[in-house]
Prior knowledge:
264 residues, alpha/beta, Stationary-phase Survival Protein Sure Homolog, Chain: A, 26% helix
Amino acid sequence: MLILPADLTGxxxxxxxxxxxxxxxxxxxxxxxxxxxxxxxVVAPESExxxxxxxxxxxxxxxxxxxxxxxxxxTGTPTDCVLLAVREIIPRDEPPxxxxxxxxxxxxxxxxxxxxxxxAAAMEGALLxxxxxxxxxxxxxxxxxxxxxxAYYGEQALRHLQGIALPKGHLLSVNIPAVEPGxxxxxxxxxxxxxxxxxKLVKREDPKGRPYYWIGGTSFDExxxxxxxxxxxxxxxxxxxxxxxxxxxxxxxLLEALGERLAW
Length: 264
């Protein structure tokens, strides 16, 4: 089991993200972490890595740049960052006790978790046998991201999670609604939802007349198939959602069914 410390006071905390080392979301998460401890390490991508999922950089060298005390930028993915942090940057004899990822600019619900670099950083933490939590802040496309809300509910969520036991290979995803601090309806455990993703695919032409494409993000308000009680539905209703995720992608139900059908 992976046990989140019952008291994070003074604990060694590792923070990463996918929006990049200079993103306001990582500053908000660092603010949250420092409510518990001064031993906070930040190891994050040099530039934005949204949508890279759980990818490793295998065919290019990785460079690490120290920006300050316990603060490093990596020319790689969120997965690279957590791996380097735990295996190389942070002293091995005093590893972090928890990995925090985010706070992502935008929610990570339903199928988003398979694309998200924010979730991937927490996945890598889980693979390294460290309790790991990913945080994401929903926002309305017509307005800015409220990072005060992100920090407010990020801290509350982390306090609630102290002492929680996770099976190996499991992690937690926290999604925060687009409300003012103190205005969320509450916290809810929620399963990962399912929906039809309507990606914004924009076709354009370069000066030579050759087509190129932009794949944009999905508008939360355009989502279809809002399954009641799921992460994206409860988030839209104004709840902070907590979704347990696991790295085992095996369909155990289908495994059993195929075992009966294909009895080799």
